[in-house]
Specification:
The protein is α+β, with helices and mostly antiparallel strands and 381 residues long. The strands form 3 sheets. Strands 1-2-8-5-3 form a 5-stranded mixed β-sheet. A 3-stranded antiparallel β-sheet has the order 4-10-9. Helix 5 packs antiparallel against helix 7, helix 7 packs across helix 8 and helix 9 crosses helix 11. The longest helix has 32 residues. The radius of gyration is 20 Å and the shape is globular.
Length: 381
């Protein structure tokens, strides 16, 4: 594949099956590539992606094409407001708070497995991988149980949506309206949930505007569901295709965190995110002009042989775990601790109950401009 033949069109139906080949061609032949399909420059090598992600002054997250155009969200802000909000929100979303969720996460995971364990087969994506993070995030933020299925449906729509799409009926607006109602309820009736914690932080003198608070909650629902759903499903498929390594995990569950990291590297749930150049800059002999979009390909960077030996091989014993699946720099995923916890617990419970599961059919990737996501994961056991 020559540089002139490279077609980077991740929203197309054909792209997902050949993504690794396209990424390799980009890295080897055109590490800075203009995609007319995305109307964006594309950066694919590990060192370049990492460097650009760290340079938020030159490559801004504000006003990029992934914006939902509704309320401000922290991943689309730059300093100083980004740093102020991140430090504030971190107090309500600490590693200790996440670690305390493990017993409940495990209880939820076991309940989901109980629901299909006697059937002999299931769609692991829709019956387990997508359900667990939805339940966890719903409880964490305080979403009423009767509304969580609706939130899951909206999240799935967001995963597959073209960011530039014009909506006739707006699911984003519906979800914001739900949050607005919950916010008003929690102002008068505190509970042990994240919405109440965020409001209390506001009362303590470091105020979040209602728009910022609702924007963060929306990000948590969408990001928490999307990233973790794909992590669990992608990891389960990788283990089904590598039964020897799965057997090692069954024999020694302490290796499961290693498998989670390798699954994140091999099949990063988020494959790319856009940035906006704030000034003219040159990369690989080509000028990127101020105002042009630059897509950072996390998925390609994680398969860069300049960084990872034999990068397309799944290896739970891989020594170098410094992948970019959860981002880098000031926009490193705030929910990384929770995603890793849910991924680990999900695999522990799945392998404990059905250690010899197999793919019932070849899972099919769904087209998405940003995500590495299956349409379904049918398994038998």
């Amino acid at each position: 594949m020559t540089a002139s033949e490279i077609v980077y069109d991740p929203a197309s139906e054909a792209f997902a099956d050949r993504a690794l080949d396209v990424y390799r061609a980009l890295r080897d032949r055109e590490p800075l590539h203009w995609s007319p399909y995305r109307k964006s420059w594309v950066v694919s090598r590990y060192d370049d992606v990492r460097a650009l992600a760290a340079d938020h002054e030159t490559f801004s997250s504000e006003r990029t094409s992934i914006s939902l155009g509704l309320l401000p969200q922290i991943q689309q802000m730059d300093p100083p407001r980004h740093d102020e909000l991140r430090n504030l929100l971190w107090r309500a979303f600490t590693p200790n708070r996440v670690a305390a969720l493990e017993p409940r996460v495990r209880e939820l995971a076991r309940g989901l497995v109980d629901g299909f364990a006697r059937d002999g087969r299931c769609d692991l994506l829709h019956e387990f991988a997508s359900q667990l993070p939805s339940l966890v995030i719903g409880e964490l933020i305080g979403i009423p149980p009767e509304r969580r299925r609706a939130f899951l449906g909206w999240t799935e729509a967001l995963i597959t949506a073209n960011p530039g799409k014009s909506w006739d009926t707006n699911p984003f607006q519906e979800i914001y309206q739900e949050f607005a109602k919950l916010l008003e309820l929690r102002r008068s009736e505190r509970r042990d949930d994240l919405m109440s914690a965020l409001i209390d932080i506001e009362v303590e003198g470091e105020q979040l505007s209602p728009e910022e608070l609702l924007g963060f909650c929306f990000l948590l629902v969408v990001g928490g569901n999307d990233t973790t759903t794909n992590l669990i499903a992608n990891a389960a498929v990788l283990l089904a295709r590598h039964p020897d390594q799965r057997a090692e995990l069954v024999a020694d569950p302490s290796l499961i965190p290693e498998a989670v990291e390798e699954a994140l590297r091999c099949e990063a749930p988020t494959q790319a995110l856009p940035r906006l150049a704030t000034r003219d800059v040159e990369l690989h002999g080509t000028r990127i002009r101020a105002g042009e979009e630059v897509s950072l390909l996390w998925g390609s960077a994680n398969h860069d042989e300049r960084r990872f030996p034999d990068p397309d091989r799944f290896d739970v014993h891989r020594a170098d775990k410094r992948h970019l699946a959860l981002g880098h720099g000031i926009h490193f995923c705030m929910g990384a601790h929770l995603a890793r916890l849910e991924g680990r617990v999900a695999l522990e419970e799945l392998l404990a109950r059905m250690p010899h599961y197999a793919l019932a059919d070849e899972p099919r990737w769904q087209a998405s401009p940003w995500a590495r996501a299956y349409a379904a994961v049918p398994i038998r056991f």
